[in-house]
Amino acid sequence: MRQETTRMNRGSLHAVLSAFRQGRAFVVTSHDAPDGDAIGSMLAMYHLLRALGKDEVLCVCADPVPRIYQWLPGADAIRPAEDSLAACDTVVVVDVADRARFDAVAQRMSPQARIVVIDHHASEAPCGHVNFIDTSYAAVGEILIELCALAGAPLSRTFAECAYVAQTTDTGGYRFSNTTPRTHRLAAQLLETGIDVAAISQRVFDVLSLPKCDLLARALARRVLSADGTVAYTELTEDDLREVGAETQDVDGIVNYMRNLAGVEAGILFRSLEPGKSKVSIRAKEPFDASAFLRHWGGGGHPAAAGATVDLPVDRLRAEVLERIACLLKETT
Predict the structure, then answer these.
(1) What is the side-by-side order of every strand in the sheet holding 90-94?
(2) For the whole model, what pTM was predicted?
(3) What is the CATH classification number for the domain harbouring 246?
(4) CA-to-CA distance for 331 and 333, rounded, in angstroms?
(5) Rounded to 5, what percent of the chain is helix, strand, coil?
(6) Calpha distance 105→91 (Å, rounded)
(7) For labelling, which of 22, 100, 283, 320 has a CA lying 20 to 30 Å from the CA of 92?
């Protein structure tokens, strides 16, 4: 199939709708280890496709839905990537454009399936036959709100709850630098459907599991300042998760505490995953670009929030990252 890719071009949403109209049986998926934008956008897309009269729509993800999003309408229908998806002719991929990041799902797709990518991360080689990639959006949920309007579909409360979670999590409750006037205008449309933003925010931002609380205590106790106080970093291990009874999803958000320290420009969380493999997550303040910085290790994301999983022992990865980030911050001050 011919590949159509457009960045920063709303007109390509027409190509997305055209692909939807041609499709009969759909799979909606996103990246492994899904976050709020991934889950919210998957479910918003599900509700949009159903509103467009598509009866055969499956939501599939390699990893489970995190606890804090399991209340969303339709979340209980998200399937693990276990069964064949060969009967589906259209695969809608949200919040990711790299096939390797949803490979468990991709392996079960028909080779003839048409892939439609909708993303807001910069991508060198998106995997879709139709790609809408626009980095000016704070979240894929925002793109889907505009897609809903373009399609002439009603803005339902169920769609709005899912899109709101996508948007509010990727903007940190509208506190991050990716929040724009458009972000608030689109959020206003969602609020007009009658969604309970206080209840949503409480579920998404204010609930802290006991295992996560114990992980946070360990991370804070190991906090180290470097680069003249402009970098704060900490570390968690698989033993930490096992000892406190935590899951991978409980690690989410802990790195933010490093960035939030006074005087810190970049907060870093290192994790040893298995022998010879580790992960680094960075949360940064402007003008530091975490995504560009982590490309050296094959990572990516956003300027303010990025990560990388690397085939290196955590000690070596930590040394490389801290040396490089200290040099970079020294050059920019």
Answers:
(1) 4-7, 130-133, 114-119, 90-94, 25-29, 56-61, 79-80
(2) 0.89
(3) 3.10.310.30
(4) 6
(5) 45, 20, 35
(6) 10
(7) 283
